[in-house]
What we know:
- This protein has 5 helices and 2 strands, in the order βαβαααα.
- The chain has helices spanning 9-12, 22-52, 55-81, 85-88, 94-125, and strands spanning 5-6, 17-18.
- α2 (22-52) packs antiparallel against α3, α2 (22-52) runs parallel beside α5 (94-125) and α3 (55-81) runs antiparallel to α5 (94-125).
- The chain is elongated and about 55 Å long.
Amino acid sequence: MNDTYSHDEAASSGAKTYAHDWRKKMSDHVAYALLVYTGLQIFATMGAMKETGLKLMALFALVVLVAAIIPACRWFEKRWRDLSDEQAADMAYESAFKRDLAGLWILALGLPFVLTMLFKGIALIL
């Protein structure tokens, strides 16, 4: 297998430091996606609260929706966490990584607005 590693001090001491680690990259993206999702969800929910006047329902929905996204993000991260060091540096995983990354960011950026629109629709019915 073709190992990709950098030649820094750790590498010269006998340890391999991988220049490309899909596990770390996905973990970083999951953390950032959770921050972005939570920020957008708060922003969108606060706007919906002002428009509908249903503050208690909106706050409950906010807590539930933030808690619900965590398992989805963990699923993305788990797919990559279990890779070996060689697999984590293997460029053959690039297309799968990009596919998962696109799904993660579509979820993080789109879901807050879709859920807010759903919340506003429910508020109109009530």
